Fold these 2 entries.
Entry 1:
Amino acid sequence: MTERRTPTRSSHTQRNPALTPALALLLRELDIQPPHDPAFHLVSEWAAKHVWRVDVAGKPWAYVRYLLGPATSYPDRWRHLRLGVELFEAHVGPRVLGISPASEVLGGRAVIVEAALDPLPREQLEDRVEEAMGLFARLHGCAPLLEALSEDLTEADHLAFSPIVNLFHETQERWFEAVTGRWLEVSLGQISVATEIVFELLQALKSVDQGTGRIGIVVPAHNDPNHGNFMTNRQGALRMIDFEGLALSNPVADLGIFLTWYVDHDRHYEALAKYPLADPVAVLSRMRVWVPLRYMNIAAHWAGRLTRARDREAWEFAALSIDEWLRGAAELLFPRGLPGRLSSLLSALTTSLLAEPFPRPARFRPDSAEVEEA
């Protein structure tokens, strides 16, 4: 693994996707030697990062992720990128083949190259729960990751840090500020019903929260443990990918979602007994609050997507997704059956959204000189 420093180049050049000859030279610069001639495929263009897949013999062999400038221009993103080394050494993430804070052949851009992993079908993940618990334990117990993610926090920050409080605040802000503002901009009066549902769920969750136990530790959490982010390496060992959301949090941020989605309810305690960093009872107790809150955040994501729907199919999918995640949160909170009023509100919201005409009538936009008929 090689690390090199070179002068930076123009930001205009760095914003454009790299040319494939430059990517071939990058492998040589970092002393990475594919077994056969590589082929490069651009798979994503983020605001400050591009990702390329490197195929060898027609199969994914590695991934190249680079920032749109040197490490010095994106210190936070570079720190996050560099954590790939710690994740690999902790036997959590893919093998790091090479890394540079400012690649010469990429015009000074910071870059990391990681080995490709093999996808894992959902049913196979469900059969490897004990191994997954060990994987989470290695991630959550990784001291270098904890130190890196904590370096900007003061002692007072540590004392005041509460992931569950932050998640409550985030949920409230997303629904009552971001989603409400956006729905009102596009004349979706259904926001009054949606926020009434969210308010009732939050009130119920606050009551539950007062009776749940505390785990008392903060860990480096993946924060998106869906089965698509679990893969296997060449030896067949379980690994994770896509650490964009890696941050300090409560262990239940990973454990709660994973158990809810992939492990039968009556096996939750058994699975948590294989996780050595927290008491299983405390985790199960905290899941009663954390998982419904996460579902409400996912519903808020789809509420935002709804207003950007480009066709009827996308509109209906977003509307049904809002119902799926809000209803899922409610069913976790009320496992013996939803209160009649809450059930009626959920049904009314979905029915009303599906009945909306599409395409939606255009509205006046403050930054536009034209006013179209509503």
Note: Residues 1-10, 364-374 have pLDDT under 50 and may be disordered.
Entry 2:
Amino acid sequence: MLDDKSIIANADSTSTTHPEPGLQIDNAFWQFSLKVYAGEDVATECLTLQESHRIDVNVLLWCAWTGRHGIALTDGDVAAAKAAVESWHDAVVRPLRRTRQRMKRLGTAEFEPLRARVKELEIDAEQIEQALLFRATPAAPKSEARAPANLIASNIARYLGAHDAPRLTAATLALDK
């Protein structure tokens, strides 16, 4: 199990109020994700992949966002992005999600205010994960102009293929809007 120093060393940040210098918490990727995730059927499809194939939805959205900005990801880019957030995701995001889900299953109304606070912390932790991904984004190549829809689909397929996950439908379509 990772201790606090390992988490900080690997994730580069532990708080939305005191992030590491240079870590942009509210960035273009975060704004993109908020817009896309609100799209019809996108959340449902992403959460299904998260539960059935352990897909990191933040990495999935990052693949789409990079494609939207003309970046064709390589296997190495996807591996580097996953490595940049793995410790943070495993040590902070997943435990917060599990705690929130367990509290919901208890079905006790008295716990709802605390569950709502845990959910807020989970969203804050996901925003930090997205800031780490934003910082790890490779520069867009100056050549090879491809349609964003094709890059989005290609980048997402590259990530999902590594997990033997099914192709997205609603999410892929919504991402190009």
Note: The chain has eight helices and no strands.
